[in-house]
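Revision sheet: structure tokens.
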Amino acid sequence: AMAVLLAFWLLPLTHLILLGAQGTEGNGSGYWQVLSSAQYLGSLAQTCLLALVVTLVALLIGGISGVFLARNHFFGRSALVALLTFPLAFPGVVVGFLVILLAGRQGIFAALGLELAGERWVFAYSLIGLFFGYLYFSIPRVILTVMAACESLDRSLEEAAHSLGAGHWRVVCDVIVPGLAPALVSCGAICFATSM
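Predicted:
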């Protein structure tokens, strides 16, 4: 097993690292050329900003949905949970294809925009398309994690806060969110990493 690891992963990776470090002049400045280029730094900043916004929106939507689904039992709840977590079954390529089908040049939004405004609404190939694709992929993870974390919350703490005169939002801010903080931090890390 070690020979296979060495032959098929470690040696090629080492060669690529050394090859990349050489640069165009061959003086070992390859990585510095990339890191100091304005084009690459701009792309890195856009990517980090996009990942941060996707993470925050996914935590907000998925957190609220997860708490609601964990606390309320109603007819069709299991079907709704299955529908909301369905994107976990898809690889990222399928989600990207879905965004292109919806918001590409021949997509549903393009046809709708042509019908309503006389011009095609195309955003699949922009940061907005990436945002919706990553968001579609991230929300189910947050929902499932928050639902599982809600199972371990002590409801008596919420009742005690209510009995001491705390309003609904005060209970949310002082009891529920701190109780869900570890789950939200782990979900945020996963969402940020998958959106990079």
